[in-house]
Structure formats: structure tokens, C-alpha cells
Amino acid sequence: MMGLEAAKEMGREAVWAKVREAGLKEFGVYQQSLTEKWEQDLAERDRWQVPLKVIAALNNNDTNRALLGLLKASASQVLEGIQIAAYALEAESMALYLPEGESELKDSLAAAAQSAGVELCEGIVDVRQARGSSVNHIETMAALSELFCGTYTPGSWMAVCKEGKTGELQKVTFPVKVGDLAGVSAEEVKGVLIGSKLYDASGLELELTQDTNIGNGVITILPAGCCMMDEEAKQLLIQRQNGCGRCTFCREGMGQLHTMVREITEGKGKNEFLPMLEEIGNAMSFSCQCSVGQTGADFTQGTLKYFADEYTDHIKKKKCAANVCSSFMSIYIDPSQCQGCEECADVCPADCIEGKSGFIHMIDEFDCTKCGKCIEACEYDAVIQTTGRVPKLPTRLTKVGKFKKR
Ligand code: SF4
Ligand code: SF4
Ligand code: SF4
User: Which end of the chain is less crowded, N or C, counting CB atoms within 10 A of the terminal residue's CB?
Assistant: First the structure.
């Protein structure tokens, strides 16, 4: 409580002056000077004529939750930051929002939150209900506490996500090159996500500064072998599931983007999808009420800018150069390699491999889900996955070694 006591001792005006002088900013997606943000919050409170509430939360679009690590490591600091903000803004109540599914963390914080007078809530912040409130990022609240405890140093908490795993949070001082933080070479990388902004491998050369919008604080490395259409479909699905559905542009727009991109990965893409993706993405960027809708379109806008050739491949050439989108692949059994051991048929979950011991096995392409289990099971490398032409194959049961191509 050292920071709160220090703040109260110096008085409200001096608190504002100290925050202004330190250049403290709101972290996350909505970066701006903290005092300017607070002035806007007070004006909104007057506009809506509601009692002011100070809310601390991650941004609604933050499904990675790496910055929740700050709360886990030092809940007292975040709670104290909320109290200092409430003191500065003369707020009447305080709340801390935890993402859905964090009930264990919620339970562990219950006693400390109660003694600080902070209500604990679960889920994303409902922007309509929060009208007239001051919604601040958890990282901002931690920094505010540090400022009044005399331990604040400029910088941002960040983590690097590689191979789907998010590393430890580290305090980064600026300027810093993305490649130095990520510790990967351009050859290993196809795309770089800085928060929700997508770049190609050239993103590794970018220099992050105090003014860069780092969003969720995570640099995500998309490896050289990935398919950007497949990654885009996954990202859009995550944000689609995360949205509350109250804004038409987020609800309908995200749904349309996701449906079109999924169809592209399934080989059903059409040329007219490209201008539609662009138009919907742009509209979402400025029409949605919170970061979910505003940044949900970022990945699409990034792929249109940096990976246009992957759209052409999937839509026009009907191929996935990365060999990831299963709709563009064929899986067949090479009759000259098959030993009729039955291993593939035993593991096939779709039960679509025909054959018996000593006979060449055959895959029914119609029922095959392209799960790849037969490829792993075959010791003779007889199951082939290709995006090219499939050779002539047996159409009826044939003894091993007896199949003739002509
Ligand atoms: S942008 Fe999406 S998540 Fe945010 S308020 Fe609108 S519908 Fe809800
Ligand atoms: S494809 Fe491989 S696993 Fe399947 S029967 Fe032939 S040799 Fe055995
Ligand atoms: S890819 Fe999967 S579904 Fe298709 S034949 Fe092999 S095991 Fe069966």
C-alpha cells in the first residue's frame, strides 16, 4: 500500500502531475497518454451521467493472455494501481475483470480484492455497460503502482510465442529490434505478428519504440512452413468465438471473413472474395465497439497486403504450396510399395482403406479425411501424400507384386 499512501499524501492534483510528467501511457491496444485518457473518461462520465467506476482488464481481443502473468505475479501491485487511479479520478467503485475460465485465479485473488474494495468479474468487458467508466489495462495499473512506489522504469512487458508456445514475460526497454527479441532468422519465418498486426518476415527488421502498438504484448512467429490461409482461418475463428456479438460489424463481419477464408482453405474460394475481404475488414476496423472487432480484421488485412500470392494459389491455382490445406491434397497407396500388411487399415478412423493380408491396399478418397494416420502407420512408405497428379492405381483387390500399370 506504499504507493497508495504516497499518492494520497501528495494530493490529487500532484498525482495527475506526476503521471503526466512520467509520460505514463495506457498499455495494450489503445495506447495514449494516461492523463489524456483519464480526461476523456471524465468527459464521458459527464456525458452519460453515471457514477464513475475504474475498471482494470486485459483488452477484450487478448486471447493469448500472456499479460495476465503480471496479475499472477503481483496482484497487489495491480490492485494498488486500481486504487490509485480511483483516487485520482474520484471514482465511486472499482472492478477487475479476469478472462473467462480463470476461476482459479479469481478465487486466489478474492481476499486481496475484497480488502482493496475491488469487485472481481469474469469475462470480457461489456463496452455498453461500461459506458462512462474508466477502463484501464492491467499493465497500466501495475505501472501506476510502481510509479508511486518509486520503482517504475519505462518499457513494456512482452513475450515471444514460437511453435504455439508463449515464452516468459520480460520487461523490454525501447528501442529494440523485433528479430533480436524473437531470436529467429528470416529463413525460419513466414510471418510475424506484433500484437495483432501481421507482417511478413521483414517484420523481424522492425524497431519497436515506446509508440509502437504492441497490443497483447506478444510477438508471434509464424514458421516458414505454415500456410497463411490456414493461420488466418484459425485466427478468425478464435476472435469469432471470443466476441460478445453485440455489434453488427463484429458479429456479421467476423462471421463473413471467417466463412470466406475457410472456404478458400477448402478449395471453394472465389475471385470476388478478395475485394469483399478488404471491404469488410476496413469497415470492421472503424465500426466495432471494442478491440475484438477492431483487431479481428487485422490478420485479414495483413494477409491481403503481404501474402496475396497465397490467395492466388488457393483460389486460382487450387493448390496449397505449404501442403497444409488438406482439400488440395490426395493420399494414395503406391501399389509398387504396398506389402499388404494391413497396418494402415487398422489405424484408419474413417474405415476407408480396403484390402486384406497379402493384397495391395486401396484408399477410398471419398471418405478419407486426410488425417495422415495411415502415413505414420506404414513402415514401407507406401502411403503417399501429394498435391500433384495421382498415378494409375488398382481398382480391385490385387495380390502384392501383381499390379501392372498398363
Ligand atoms: S467488437 Fe465484438 S466483442 Fe467488441 S463489443 Fe462489439 S460485438 Fe462485442
Ligand atoms: S500401405 Fe503400408 S501399411 Fe498399408 S497395407 Fe500397404 S504396406 Fe501395409
Ligand atoms: S488419411 Fe486418415 S482417413 Fe484417410 S485413409 Fe489415411 S488413415 Fe484413413
Answer: C
Is residue 399 situated within a structural domain?
Answer: no
Domain count, the chain: 4
Averaged pLDDT for residues 111-123: 96
Mutate to test the pocket of ligand 2, among 332, 342, 373 (most ligand atoms within 8 A of CB): 342
pLDDT score recorded for residue 406? 62
Instruction: Output the pLDDT for position 158.
Output: 97
Q: Which atom of ligand 1 is nearest to the CA of 288?
A: 1
Q: What is the mean pLDDT of residues 119-123?
A: 96
Question: Which of the listed residues 263, 286, 315 is the one where a domain comes to its end?
Answer: 315
Looking at the structure, tell me whether residues 185 and 131 fall in a common domain: no
Residues 20 and 145 in one domain: yes
**Radius of gyration (Cα) for the chain, nearest Å?**
27
344 in ligand 2 pocket by Cβ < 6 Å?
A: yes
pLDDT per position as a tens digit, 50-79 = 999 999 999 999 999 999 999 999 999 999
CA angle 152, 157, 161 (to 5 degrees): 170
Q: Given pLDDT bands bounded at 50, 70 and 90, which one contains residue 1?
A: low
Could you list the residue range(s) of the whole structural domain that residue 346 is in? 329-386
351 CA → ligand 3 middle, Å: 8
Domain final position from 190, 208, 223: 223
Domain CATH for 127? 3.40.50
Among 336, 339, 375, which residue has the most ligand 2 atoms within 8 Å of its CB, making it the best to mutate? 339
Which one of the ligands is nearest to 401 CA?
A: 2
In a domain, 392, yes or no: no
**Residue-by-residue DSSP string for 252-278:** HHHHHHHHHHHHHHTT---TTHHHHHH
- pTM, entire model: 0.86
Identify the H or E element spanning 213: none
- CA 367 to ligand 3: nearest atom: 3
The sign of the torsion formed by the CA atoms of 221, 223, 229, 233 equals: negative
If asked whether residues 184 and 141 sit together in one domain, one would say no
